[in-house]
Each structure stands twice: as structure tokens, then as C-alpha cells.
Amino acid sequence: MGIVKKPSNQGGAQDTRRGGASPFVLGFEQFMRLRVWLSLPRLCGFLAITLGLIVLLGWAISSPALTMLLPGSANTMKVNTAFCFILSGWALIWAQSRVRWQQQWHRVCLLLVATITSLTMLQYVTGWNLGLDELLVRDRISPVGSGLPGRMSDQAAISFLLLTASLSCARSQREPRVICSQSLALIAGWIAMLGLFGYLLGINAFYLFLDRQSAIASNTVVGFLVLSIGALSFHPQRGLLAILSSPSLGGRLSRTLLPWLFVLPLLLRGLKFLSQQYLSVTPVVSDGLVALITTSLLVALLWVVARSLNQQEEKLLTALQAAQEIQRRFRQIVMQAPQPMVLYRSDGCILEVNEAWRELSGYELEDTPTVESWFEKVYGPEKVAEVLRIAEEVYAMPPGQRQANGEFVIQTRSGALRTWDFYSSALGPDAEGRSLVLSTVIDVTERAHTDRQLRDLSENLEHLVQIRTTELESIRDQLETAQRVAKVGSWAFEVVTQTIEWSPQLFRLFGMNPSEPVPSFEEHLQQIHPLDRDYWLRNVQRCIQQGTPYSIDFRVTWADGSIHWVSGQGEAVRNAEGQVVRLIGSAIDITDRKATELRLAQAEEQARLLIEKNPGVVYRFSPNALQDKGYVSPQIETLLGVDQSQWHAGFANTWQQFVHPDDLDKIQQQFEAALAEQRAYSFEYRMIRSDGQTIWVRDQGEMLLSVDGTLLVQGLAIDITALKETGLALQERIQELDQRNREMQLLGQLNDFLQACSTVAEAGQVIAGFLPQLFPNCRGQLSLLQRDGKLEMLQAIVEWGQPVHTQPSFLLSDCWALRRGTPYLYDPDQVLSPACPHVKGKISSGESIFCLPLAAFGEILGHLQFEQMVTHDNSCVDSKAPPLAETIAEQLALAIANLQLRETLRQENLRDPLTGLFNRRYLQEFFEQELARAKRSGDSIGILMLDIDYFKRFNDEFGHDAGDMVLKQVARALLNQVRASDVVCRFGGEEIAILMPGASLEVSARKADQIRQAIAQLIISYHEQTLPSLTISIGVAAFPESGLASDTLIKSADTSLYQAKAAGRNCVVVHQPSWRKFELMSADDSAIAVNPDPSGSPS
To answer: Which residues cross the membrane (predicted)?
Structure first.
């Protein structure tokens, strides 16, 4: 029994079959595939939901076939049990969900199941009848009350409690909770298995649990088995079930016995049924037959298991011996390998190193037992983290993969640096699941050193080729100039084609006209004097055959018979294969040597003039001779202020005397490096002229060898002071533009935020957040103008940077900027002007105060003040800051003006212009909001509708102005009587509505009577005469007693107001529905009446 692998050949297959594997044995791979397909909690959850829905349908349509699994059984699944199966199925499906609402419903389902089953167990324990069993569908078996026949069985209730607790723990990944979840699920499954075996084997005690009057139904047992399997399937390879999914011997044994656990009871039940049905045996005989067969099957099963275990153990021992032999040979190969090798695990432990590793690194295994300690010794502590990241990538390789890690420089125990090329191979996990890695090393120290030498040699060759190319170009230019000036002819001879190319001057040297065709080689040979012909020919042939250059003097015969001396030179040109393919050379008439020497002298003079007219200083000296004066051009006087004749000391020493001390060491190091490598150099450094002025110099030069092999340095030094200053100025300008660009971006953002502000306070907070970014070293305060009669005060609304010279409020006349209408900068170090009176404290030296008026549309709105305590070198108050601050002040003023304008328009749109009370539109909007809040919180809302009695008399007798005066006085009195949370609105004409959130009908009625008495006590004078006393009539309604909608409540209060008018005025009438009795307080001066609602129902 165990893992049944696919045989590699026919014989292997026969051996496997002879091993006696049972057809019911599950191999590890088959078991894992079965687990993936069957153990999904969603499948079990949907099965449980389906079972519950089928049973509920059976109860709904009175179909016993759907409420029981075994036909004819009296035990049916109850309604509460089916409902709990549906809830448990959804909880099982959502147990591992990461969706928030599914997690919440998972908890709700578990809570409902636990509540139902706990109450059911409480009924069993106490004998109470809570009516819980008849909530959904009344059980036809127990038609009266909640009797035991219609109640969920105690066995089912306990199983549901166990599964609820198991599913609660199943969401956790901690091992103790996983074990707890599996234990509870196993207990529930065991209870279900008892019931199933009881039904299959006919043992009533297995499905009658604590209470003998209630039995668990057969379909309920099946449902619990499904839920238990689903709960166990969350963590099949952890906790108590780890051994079941393990490929070990215990896992194979458990998977061998697992199918028999389900097959054996079915076989026994079928055998018992067949014996009683067809053999007519008595139950006692059938039970004995079942016991005998059970014992035989168990013995056979034990024998099969024992034989399978024995075979598996023999195979295991054989495999273990083979593995040990392979391990021994592998260790022997590794230890004797000429290349260093190391074996280590993914936890960082080094298991083994071979002799080559010890010899090359110098470290024993005891010196570096872990990978991290090895890295620290050979790479240094600063590189450990970087190399460990590479090691983590090696640990992640799949088994069998090989990876090149690259070359690393390590330090051996002796201190020597070696370059190792690492290759790592993943060997797979060990017994504990840790990855094993074998790394092989190739010591490439010598190769790396050779590579570096080759790179250096290549760079030197490239440099030499560049120098040589430059020299050739210079020689070519000089040759062309010399030919032009000295009339020197040049020629070229193609060896393959035997053709000659002559320059025009060469024609003249041989007494020919340049227009004549170029002579052939044989014709040219005849032009050579007969006595010199062999000599010339030998040199030419040697140059062709051996590539040896030549320089000879020979005679030539012109066509007129005259003889001339010519000095000829020639050299060979080779192709890529090294073969001579061309000869090039020149010739000069020695007869005119003197004239030629004169021309050469003139050419030298021209070259000297060219150097002296160069704006830079040309120099040349020998670096190995410190006292060598070398050569320096006359421009040295312009550059350093030192005459060329005074350049008496060694060139190098004298030049260093003028180098800036801060740059001297750096330049010396760079020059010595270039000198050591004999390469060209280019430096930029400072020099100090003889008059003390500091200048910038660009020094470029190269290394040359003289004819005698002396190393020479030749260079050009140019004054780049103006270029440097221009670059610095450009950099400062770029920084300034970046700063302006940042300020413009911040200004744009500030303007966007100001436009989005809804109140002046929000605008102040925006200013406090942006100004420290625009003026980092400044602090200040924003104040707004407040008018109280004729007094104009500036009140601070926001500060930033903790200013010390500001006041929370000051008069408009205390600021020079506000009085003059322009920004005002007070700086005691620069401007002799007075400080503003509102500035607190003494302004010390280095500080400044900058005041800006906030004005828009010709009106002063506020004041913006900046202050700083730093010096003028880094202060925010510079030439660019005041204009920026003025721009901010203009934007802020416009924003504040817009906000104030919007607030004014809003107030005018919501308030009555005569009384200052809110208008009817605001009442409707506010009433709807308060109703919605009151409906959510369950609060009351009182509504008062009042009207001035005989108001028309005031208009008729005293005029409409008097009526307006009365309305204003009444409005002021009402505002003094109500709470701050109450809303007083002019509803229309002399009719006023008062909305009282949180006030009940009784409180509203008392407040209405207080208002009535307060109005009656008003004394109003108009044009030096006292107007008659006022009385008002008030109608009172409240939410929810008088209605649930705003229109209904206002109508109820208005109806009560008309009834108060009809009752004689100067009284309060309360709208009261007939279904609620209102008890009035007794008071001597109370005038509260009750208006019952004849309909008898609330509005």
C-alpha cells in the first residue's frame, strides 16, 4: 500500500501488481488530485445549501419525500435544521473570501447558526418552550406549540455548534487555531458517522443522542458529513490532517484505510439486508453473520496492510542504501575535484567544502560555518547585504537548474585578492524542505589580470595611434607647405601595376613639363645617370622586397643633356597582409640647396610667428629635468604678467609658483598620472597673476619624444576666465528662472485654491499653507477689516511662522500701507522712515516689516504683513520678493472680495430684507434637512406659526412705516426668546414661523406661550408716541405627533393658528390628534388650547 507509480517497463508493472496493492488504495498523486477536486469548500457549501433548500421545499409543499432521505422513516430534517444548513453552507463558501462584504456575511451566518442552536440546546436543558421551532414552517407532526417531534435534534444542535466554532477558526493561518478547527470538524464528522452507521447497521443508539425523544434524520447526517469535509478541506496539509496528505508511510497507511471506512459499513448493511430478505434468517443470525464477516474482513485488511507496509519498507531500505551509495560517491567526487566546491542550504548553513576550496581560500569549514560569515570574511561587512541578495536568487532556482553567478573578487585568509567565477546548481530540497545548492568556483585571477593588461595595452595603442595620426596629418600639412614653398616633388609607385604618379614639381626636377605624360618605370630608369642607375635600382628593389626605406642622392640627366643632383627618399606602404603594395617618396634638387635652405628658414619663421600670434601660451619642456627652462611663448606676459626674459628658473618649478594653492595638489596628481601613462591631458585650474588677480586657465598638452629619446611635454595654456564667469552667470540665471517658475506654479495653485474656497476662513488657511513655501524665511499675519459703526478695525484671522511683531487687532489708521493705499516696507538698516504704530516691539537691525493693503474695487478689505529676522544676504525681502508679495496681495484681495460678495448674495437670497429673519425658502430647505435628521435619530421638531393680531390697524392708523417698525421689533423680540438652534422665518406678511429642532409638542407649546407673553409686554415708540400694545396668535404643531412631512406639519400649525384667531386671538392653539391625549400644565396666565384632530390619526 502506498504510492503506486507508473511503471517504466512491463516487468516493473508486473512487480507493482504483485505487490498486492488494494484497488481501494489511494496513491499520493491520486489523493492530491482528488483533494483538489473534492475538497473545495465551495463545493461542500453548495451541497449543504442545496440540501437545505430541498428540505425547505418539501416542508413548503408538504412532500415527505423531500424532508427525509430514507423512505418510510419517521425522522425528517426539521425546518430550523434546513435553515441552519443553508446558513452554514454560505459561511463555508465565504470562509476564505477576501471581499469585505462576504467576510461580514460569513460572520453573520455563523452568528445566526450559533444563536439558533444555542437556543435549541437551552430548550433541551431547561425544558422551556421558546417557540423557536415554529418560526418558519409549523411542523405537521407537532401542530400545537413547539414540541419535541418538530424540534431540531440535540445531536444536530451540538454538531452545528462544533462546525460554527470550526469555521470561525478556519480563517486563521496560525497553527493552534488550525488544529482547533480540524479537531472540532472531526468531532462533528464523528457524530455524523455514528448516525450514518446507526442507520446503515440498524443501531438506534447511534442516532439517538442525549434525548431519546428526538433523533437525528438520515439526510441531516449526510449534511453534517458534507460540512465536516468542507471544514477539514481548508488546511489539508497542516495540523491534524498533515499526515493524511503526506507522502510518508503514515500518510500512505491512512489513505489505505480511509476508503474502507466508507465501504465496509455499506457492505455490511447490504449483507444484512440480503440475508434477511432472501435467506429468511432471524435478526440474531444476521447480526452474528455480520459480526463474523466483519472480523474476517478486518483480519484480511490488516494482513493486506501489513504486507503492503513490509513491501514499502523493503523498497525504502533499498532506495536508502542506493541513495547512501550515491551520496558517498558524490561526496568523494566533490572532495577530490580540482575545482573549489561548497555545499550549503537555503537557511545559510554551509554543509561541506572540498580540499580545493580550503587550499585556495585558506578557510576551514569551522571558520565560516554560515554563508553570511563567509561573505563577511571574503567581501567585507559593507558588501554582505548585496551578495546576500544574489544568494536569495540562487535559493529560488528550481531543482536541476544551473546558473552562472559571475566573477567576484574575494580576499583569502592570507590577505591576497583572488577573482573567482561562481557557478551554482540547485540540488532540490532536503528532508526538511530547505533548498540545497552546490556552488563550483573557477579561479580566474590570472585571466582577469591578463584582461586588465590587455585593456590597458589597447588603450595605450589607441592613444599612440591617435598621436601617430595627428603627427601624420601634421607631416602631411607640413609636406604640402614645404612642397609649395621649397618646390619639393613627391611621387608614388604602384608595385602591382608598375605605374608612377608624379607631383608637378617633380616634373620640373627632371626637366620635364608637367603637362607631359608621366613616364613609365623603364623610362624613368633611363633618366637616372648611368653611373648611379644600379645604385638607385638596388635601393628601390630592396624597398619593394623588404620594405626598407631609403634616402639617397643621385644624378639625373635632363633632355637638354644637363646634369642635376637630386636627393630622393622612398618608403614602402603595406596592405593588411603585410605585403608591399606601394612606394611613396619625394625628391629635391640639391643644386639649389642654398635657395632651399633659405626658403626653409622663411618657413620656420612663419611657424614661429604663427605660434607667437596664438592667444594662448605655447610651452615645451622636459619633465625629467627640473631645471630645464624649456620654451614658453611671449604670451606668458599677457597671461601671468611675467616677461618672457624673466622666465629664468626651471619651467615646471616656475609654473607651479603661479598655480592657485587650492588647485596645486590636484593638478600635480593629474599631471603625474598623465606623465606616467604618457598620454595627452587637459586641465582647468586657477592661477594667480603677478598683480594678485586670480584667473582660470585651460591647459592642454601631450607627451613627445625628441630625436635623442628625451621625453618632452608640449602644451597650450589659454585664459578662460571670461568663459568661466559667463558660465557661472548663466547658472545663476538658470537657478533664478527655476525659482521664478516654481513661484509661478505655486501662484497658480494658490489662485486655484482661493477660487475654490467657500469662506474667508478657508482662504486664510490656504494662505497660511502657501506663503511659507513662497517665502521660506518669512513669517506674517493676515487681517480682515471689521466695521462696527464708524470704528474700522483690522482683525487677524490667520498667522504663519509665529510672528513676533503682530497684534491680533488694530485700527485702520495704525498702518501706513492702509493709510497711503500702497505697500510699505520698513527697514531700519536702509530706509529712514517711521514704523507702523500697529507693529509690536522694537525692530532690530537685520529685520524688516512689509505691509500690504488688501483692496479690491476701490475698497479696503484687509491687511497682509510680512516680517523676517535674518540678514539681507539670505532674507526673503529682496528685489524679487516685494513684487511677488504684491501679486499675492492682489489675488488674495480679489478672492476675499468674491467670497464676501457671494456671502452677501447668499444672505440676501435667504433673509428677509426688512426684519433680517430667514425667508420662506430657507425655512423649506432647513425644514427638510431637520426632518431627515429627526427621522434617523428619533428626535422631535416643534413648529410655531404666529400672526400679529390686528396688524392692519397699525398700517391704517399709523402708516406702513409704523407697521414695518412693529415687524422689526417683533422679530428682535422673537430672536431674543428662541434658542440659538431655532430658526425664525418670515413666512409672509405679518405671519412668522419658528422651527424648533429637538422640541416636543409640550415644550413647543410652553415656548409659544412664553413668546406670546413676551410680545404682549413690548413697548414700541414711533415718532415720539407709544403704539398700542401688541398681541399675537400662535398655532403649534410638532413632528411626529402632527405629521411626518414638512407640508403637513406647516399646514397643521397654520390650521391651529387660524383656530387661535377664531378663538379670540392672543392665545396659543396646539394641534393634537385624537389618538393622543395631551395633559396641559395649569398656570394662571396660560392661554394654551388643544386642537384635536377629528380624523383620529396622525397627519
So the answer is: 40-59, 79-96, 108-126, 184-210, 216-236, 257-276, 288-306
- End-to-end alpha-carbon separation of the chain, Å? 82
Q: Are 863 and 849 in contact (CB under 8 A)?
A: no
In the predicted model, what is the mean pLDDT of the chain? 77
Q: Which residues, in sequence order, are bridge partners of residue 350?
A: 344
Three state DSSP letters for 676-731:
HHCCCEEEEEEEECCCCCEEEEEEEEEEEECCCCCEEEEEEEEECHHHHHHHHHHH
3-state secondary structure 925-987: HHHHHHHHHHHHHCCCEEEEEEEECCHHHHHHHHCHHHHHHHHHHHHHHHHHHCCCCCEEEEE
955, pLDDT greater than 60: yes
CATH architecture label of 747-905? 2-Layer Sandwich (3.30)
- The reported pTM is 0.32
Residue 829 pLDDT: 72
What is the share, in percent, of the chain residues with pLDDT greater than 90?
Answer: 6
Tens of pLDDT, residues 236-269: 767 666 666 666 666 666 667 666 666 666 666 6
Cβ-based neighbours of 1033, under 8 Å, separated by 6 or more: 946, 947, 949, 1057, 1060, 1061, 1065, 1066, 1067, 1068, 1069
Model confidence at 10: pLDDT above 50:
no
Q: Is-contact 342 365, C-beta < 8 A?
A: no
* Number of residues written out for the chain: 1099
Given a cut of 70, is residue 475 above it in pLDDT?
A: yes
Confidence tier at 597 by pLDDT (50, 70, 90): low
Q: Which long-range contacts link 118-126 to residues 24+ away (Cβ below 8 Å)?
A: 118/161, 120/80, 120/151, 120/152, 120/154, 120/157, 121/154, 121/157, 121/158, 121/161, 123/151, 124/154, 124/157, 124/210, 124/211
Q: How far apart are CA 617 and CA 689, in angstroms?
A: 14
What backbone torsions phi and psi does residue 818 show, to the nearest 5 degrees?
A: -70, -35
Q: How far apart are CA 501 and CA 520, in angstroms?
A: 10
b/e 210-226 (16+ beta carbons within 10 angstroms → b):
eeeebbbbbbbbbbbbb
- Higher local confidence (pLDDT), 51 or 486: 51
| Amino acid type, 1008 | A
pLDDT in tens, 350-404: 888 888 888 888 888 788 888 888 888 888 888 888 888 888 888 888 887 888 8
* Cα dist from 882 to 420, 736, 745, 752, 877, whole Å: 66, 16, 18, 22, 7
CATH class of 337-451: alpha beta
**Residue 390 burial by Cβ neighbours in a 10 Å radius (0-12, 13-18, 19+):** middle
User: What's the CATH superfamily of 911-1093?
Assistant: Reverse transcriptase/Diguanylate cyclase domain (3.30.70.270)
Domain-wise residue ranges, the chain: 1-23+249-336, 40-235, 337-451, 486-598, 627-719, 747-905, 911-1093
Amino acid occupying residue 724: K
Could you tell me the maximum CA-CA distance found in the chain, to the nearest angstrom? 165
Query: What is the rounded (10 degree) CA torsion for 626, 628, 629, 632?
Result: -90
Q: Strand 1032-1039 and strand 1068-1073: pairing?
A: parallel
Q: Hey, how many other C-beta atoms are within 10 angstroms of the C-beta on 743?
A: 18
Strand (E) positions, 844-924?
848-856, 859-868
What is the CATH class of 486-598?
alpha beta
Strand-pair partners of 1068: 1034, 1088
CATH architecture of 627-719: 2-Layer Sandwich (3.30)
Helix runs in 714-800, H state only = 721-756, 760-774
815 against 642, higher pLDDT: 815
The three-class DSSP label of residue 151 is coil
Do the two domains 486-598 and 911-1093 of this chain adopt the same fold?
A: no
Rg (CA), the chain: 56
Cα 792 to Cα 6, 246, 432, 497, distances in angstroms: 100, 89, 85, 110
